[in-house]
Every structure is written in C-alpha cells, then in structure tokens.
C-alpha cells in the first residue's frame, strides 16, 4: 500500500505535521516507529504505514473517518504491554497512538470519580487519584507503561482482583470512536442508569475491535489503611482450596490470594539469590494479603494462622512483621515470571477454571504431559483466589527452542480441550488478540462467536478496527 | 388472534396439559391468568392469549421456537414487581412464566458461587446462600416476590448498592434463550474470562428484549458481621454531599447512605404514627448504615459523629443502640413509599445524577414547578450515595387525579430535559419498559439507540421477545 501525497497532506492538516509519521518518510527512527505497532508478545513482526498522535476524541474521530474513506485498516496503540498480539500492526495499517491523550478531564470529589483521556499511564492515574484523596485499585506489574484505555480494552485484572474485581467494575463511563468515526458516549459519570442495553460493557475487553476508547470515567475508592502479608506452606493442592474457603470467614478483607509451587519458589531463590523462607520443603505456597485498620487486627491474623495450622491447611506460616519483610515475601511471587523467563525458555498460558475443577484439570494436564512430553516441566502459579492459573511450560535443556515451541503448539490445543472439559477459559486476563484467536472456540460457542461477528459488523461495518484480532 | 387446536395440542405436548393455559379455555380464573401478564405499574390492562410454565431451559427454548414458527409475540414473566411495565402482556402474546423454574442447580463452596434457575424468588436465594455459609447482597423491598432472573433482566439495585454495587456485579454466568429459541450460555462459573466480547452484560438490564434468562450463576460473599445505623439531621443540601465525602474516610465499610426530606419524614410520622426522632426541625435527614466487626468499632462511629457535628455537616445525630432501634430508624426511610402512596396521589420518578450536579438540578426543578405548577409538592428521598433520587410529585388536594396525571405528563419531559442538561438518567433502577420508552432519547443518543436496535435485530430477528419494551 502506498499513501498518496494528497492523503498525506490531508492527515497532516488534520493533526499538524508533528503528529503524523509515514513509514516511507524519515522523521522518526524505524525502531521507534515500529515499536508503536507491537506489544510484548514478540512473535509478530510489525510493519505498518502511518503513525498518528491525536490529542483528543475529535481528532481520533477525524483520523478514523479518513481511514474509513480510504479503506485503511486501523490499529489503536496504547502502552503496548499486552501478551496476545492485540496491538500488533503488521499489514500496512494506520496506527493511532493514544500517547498524547493523557490529561485529567474531570473529577467529582463527592462521589469519587475521575475522568481522564484514555492514553494516561496507569501509574499516573494512581497518582492523580491519590492526590485527590482517593485510590484506584487496579494494579499489576505493567502499570508503569500501560495506558488506562488499554487496560479497559483488555479488561485488566492484576493481583487484587479477589478483593476489587476486574477493571470492568470500576468503569462508570466511556467515550469511544467506532469504525465509522462516530463518537459514542456511554453513561457519563453516573453509577445507576437502567435505560436499555449497557453498551459500554461491549467495549470493555473488546481489544480495540469495536471502537477506540478515548476517554473514561472511573469510580475511585479509598486506599486500604494498611496491609499484612501472610506467607504459608501448603501440604497439598486441595488444602489450597480449603484455605481459600477459610478466608471467607476472616473478619479482615483479603486483598490478594496468590499461589506458587515449590518449582517456582526454587527458581526465584536461584535467580534472585534469596533464602528459602521456610524450614521445611512443601509442594505449594500461598501468599495472602489482608487489609488491616488498626494494630489489634494483627491478633486476628495470628488467630487465623493458628486455625489454619490446626486444621492442617498449612504446614508452616509466617506473618510479615514490617513493610520490608512484606516486600520480600511479595518477591517470591512477583519474581517468578522474571526468574523463569530469563534463566529458561518458557511457553506461557494464562487460564482460568472454577476452583473446584482445578485439581482434576491439573491431574489431566499432568497425565497428558507425562505421556506425550515426558521432559516438559510446569511452572505453576497465579491468582488462585480468582481461579486464575499461570501455567508455564518450561523447555527441557536438551530440546532446541524451535523444536520446543513446535511441540508446545501441539500441547496447547490438547490443554484447551481439557480446559473446555473442566469449564475453564483459555484466557483469563491476557485476552485473545492474534495469539489465541484460532482457539477461541474452546471458550466460546459458535453461536456466541456468530453474535460477536454481528456486533462487530454493526460497529465497524468495513472491518477496519484492529482487524484480525479476537475473531477467527 | 386465535390459536388453532393443532397449535394448542402442540404446546400441550411440549409442556404437558397442566403447564399451558389458554385465555379462551377456563382452567384458570381470569384474574389469576391476567396477573401473569402485568406488573406493579398498574397503568396498562393485560390481555394476552397463552400462559406457559416451562420447567427448564430446554422447555423455554421449545416454547420460543413454537412462538417463532407461528410468529407469536412473547412476554417473559418473573415476579412482576417492576414499575415500568416491562412485564406487561397486552397484545395477544404468549406469556412464559419462570415461576416453576426455582431450583438450585449447583454450588461451589470454595469460590462461593451458586447456580440457580431464573425463577427462584430472591428471598429464597438469600436463604439458599445463607444455608451454605454465604451471603447474597442484593436486597430491596420486593425480594419476597421478585425473581432472581427478573432482578438480572432489570439490573436491580436496592439499599446497599453504595457498598455492593448493582446485581450486574454479582453475575458470573448466564444461560439465555434468544428470540429464535437458541440457547446461549455465557461464562459458566468463572470470574475471569477475557475471550472476546462479554455478551452476558447485554442481557443484564435488557428487560427480556434480547433473550429470556433461564439460569444464572451468582457470586456470593460473606455476610456483614453486624451493622450500626446512624440517623442524622442535615442543615442543607450541600452538607449531604460533604457528609458523603466524609464517609470515604471512615475506617468502617458503609453499607447504605440514604436521604429524605423533612416533607417525607412528616408523612411517615403521620402515616405510621411514630414520633419525630429529632428534637429540632431540619430540612434533610440522612440514614447511614455501617458494618462493624467488633464492639470497639462503636467508638469509631462516635468519633465519626463528633467529626460531622463539629464540621457542621449534621446538626443532630443518633446511633441505634440495638437492633430494634435500628429497625425503627430504617422505618423512617423505608416507610416513605407506603406513607405517601396510601395517603396521597403521587407521580413517581426514579432518577440519577452525578452527585455534584444534584443541587443545581433540584434548583432548576423547583423553579420549573414553582413557575408552572405552583400547587405541586415534591417528596424527595433515595439512595443518594449512589446518585439516585426518588422524586415523587404529590397531587395538590384541589386537583382531580385525571388532571394531575395529565399535568404530570407535561412535567416529565421538562424534568427529563433538566436531567439531560445535568448529565443524569431518566431511570436509575426501574428500567424503561413501556412507561419511559418515549423518553429514552433523553438518556441515550440516537446513535446509541441505533446500536441497540442492531443488537436487538441480531438476537431477536422477528422482534418477538417482549416487543415494544425499551426501544421507542
């Protein structure tokens, strides 16, 4: 595809010269240019034509209208921290980066809501909320780069979903630009609005395929007064579930319920050179974070620890005595991804299951690997309180990368079949993007996919918005 | 419309004789028969042909397929406690009552989720959850009759939305039958499932126009340990907002934040023969409910009361000393509807606004009434922490009912215009149904309504499902 000089001039007149870049002109170095058309998936090679930086919803609409008139495909570009290829532009598209749209637009100090442009970096949103005496609770490793609009477009979760839910729960209103360039505004900043279909929920998690999210109003909450970390060793898988059940009876709010296997703990110890926090070996570990509001709450934690030790749900447990120790405990969980990715070659999966089906699924999965891929090991960890497992397959030393990934390609469908059998999802948090679209049918029926197609067609009749993502 | 004997036999063979009733046959008395085709709105006269009582999703699907083949319009019928005519059948329809679908289907004790048929009465669902050691938090006056499916179809709220959110937040999975009789199953019982558009949210709040909800999986939570009621007198409207803002800093969870005017308090005192709980007259009253977990939490409440008295947000306040007093306090809020409906003729409106726009809206509204309808008085109360006002216009004694309602018909559009100006919604909780569909455009843009129509068409191509509801 080549862009005519006339069209180049048109775009420049829409946005100004300094906010439009063309692949075949050299205002920006190629690596930087291409980085706006990719994400963290790294298996796709970006290749696209035009990079734009609109400053407001109206400009996004004008760029989309330009693309619509000229039948140019569009990829919305946020913080590009995704793991499913949802932000990849590799077929001559126009990329619409939201990076220059990062302003606070409005704030309601009474209800506690903040309206911002979608390109605001999540960490900055946290700051803006805190400066106003509030707290925005959706938090995860990539918040220093991710955009709030991208978080909404992928229905982001993170480590405290067990308490705060997914980001969907915190979105009051959205402004979006559809595939025709039309601006739709949903709900404003009110909480209750039972006036027909709540269309904003279609856009939350739609990965930019139905519209480009340009502004959002988020509900804020209050910051936890303080928190405590309880790190425990768990003797068997079913005790993890009993332990989680037991937390329902705790008088303190639980903010996180994360688990890891001995295998993961070992890898973190090796990689980060940290000691084993427990004196005896255990197959599983669970890290719990509770909110406390006063010192006497510590007694409740000790009494909880006593109960779960007595009931045998945990064989050992340690309560962080100060914030430094709390941080250290979190490292055993948060260091896993880095430890296994740097020292090993891994194939990642982010799946979810009903809690009670987890063990049967894992048994089936282990049987599958043992019989067909005896050298494969699993690094298993995740937000187990949400039913969310990060299941990473680790490459055996004697296998080449190419051979390993080729075998993983065969494992995936078998695993997805098992997930389907146990009523799980092939993507808990990361989305579908390009990476999993061929497997969508393992999580969604053909009737559902048909409805999704009809909705896509209604909002993006020329199939220009992030085409090829999600729908097979 | 008349139903052929062949079709009658067909339906009887689908469901069995005892679960199909025809208007022109006399198995059931007419009043009972008609009651399944109406709700609490009372302004529409039910008139329909066939009443059916399927027992499971498959049977609902078969009845819908029968209707589809014969082009018969369908009205789903739940607990019929709505206030917008959403369950009215008045044009020869087939009514599908969910009353015989009230079974528990599944329970996950670890995560805490319950799967039930949609016809389960909400109160019974509360019981089923409690028997299993959990709590379902969506609660309101009509839960003794309302169905959980109807609650979902209207995205029900209630008195504790400020803490627990609307029912939307508690729905994990749905099974629905679309307008073609197709069964769609959304999400099962998992929390996280980022695999494309989350279609279940379209059905939540769709008032039966996109599909009939037949089964649902609900997330449960834990019951508040105990609660305390703080009833306060507030000197002016802006102090209500400051007071709400102040609750954000409370270390105790706030479960309810309800307000009423002096006018409402007087009406409850007259009707229920209860004394004035305050020694001095105040224009506004706010009732707050807080969760407490231990006795020392009472100190926090006293200190909060001290703060809000010092800051002048309240002029007087009283903390319920026991559960009987708590109940008494709640009566001043919960008795309003009954008190004004029985002793007066009222025109109800259930609206919502951004908190900070409430006062300007109310000033505009008062100015409108004073200039054009000087005899009209307003009974104002509601879930103000959610931005939700129940604005009831009370008929002046010297006006006939007919004249009053005819004038209200003129007030409504003017009020809706003011709501639009202040970014509010014409229906916070009650939905649109038949009653407000002509005013939908005050809350939704024509572009949004167009998208709604396209979605309706995709899921109900013959426009058979609850036709004429929501969409003008």
From TrEMBL, chains A, B:
<keyword id="KW-0560">Oxidoreductase</keyword>
<dbReference type="InterPro" id="IPR016171">
    <property type="entry name" value="Vanillyl_alc_oxidase_C-sub2"/>
</dbReference>
<keyword id="KW-0285">Flavoprotein</keyword>
<dbReference type="InterPro" id="IPR051264">
    <property type="entry name" value="FAD-oxidored/transferase_4"/>
</dbReference>
<dbReference type="InterPro" id="IPR016164">
    <property type="entry name" value="FAD-linked_Oxase-like_C"/>
</dbReference>
<comment type="similarity">
    <text>Belongs to the FAD-binding oxidoreductase/transferase type 4 family.</text>
</comment>
<dbReference type="InterPro" id="IPR016166">
    <property type="entry name" value="FAD-bd_PCMH"/>
</dbReference>
<keyword id="KW-0274">FAD</keyword>
<dbReference type="Pfam" id="PF01565">
    <property type="entry name" value="FAD_binding_4"/>
</dbReference>
<feature type="domain" description="FAD-binding PCMH-type">
    <location>
        <begin position="43"/>
        <end position="223"/>
    </location>
</feature>
<protein>
    <submittedName>
        <fullName>FAD-binding oxidoreductase</fullName>
    </submittedName>
</protein>
<dbReference type="GO" id="GO:0071949">
    <property type="term" value="F:FAD binding"/>
</dbReference>
<dbReference type="GO" id="GO:0016491">
    <property type="term" value="F:oxidoreductase activity"/>
</dbReference>
<dbReference type="InterPro" id="IPR006094">
    <property type="entry name" value="Oxid_FAD_bind_N"/>
</dbReference>
<dbReference type="InterPro" id="IPR016169">
    <property type="entry name" value="FAD-bd_PCMH_sub2"/>
</dbReference>
<dbReference type="InterPro" id="IPR004113">
    <property type="entry name" value="FAD-bd_oxidored_4_C"/>
</dbReference>
<dbReference type="InterPro" id="IPR036318">
    <property type="entry name" value="FAD-bd_PCMH-like_sf"/>
</dbReference>
<dbReference type="Pfam" id="PF02913">
    <property type="entry name" value="FAD-oxidase_C"/>
</dbReference>
<dbReference type="GO" id="GO:0022904">
    <property type="term" value="P:respiratory electron transport chain"/>
</dbReference>
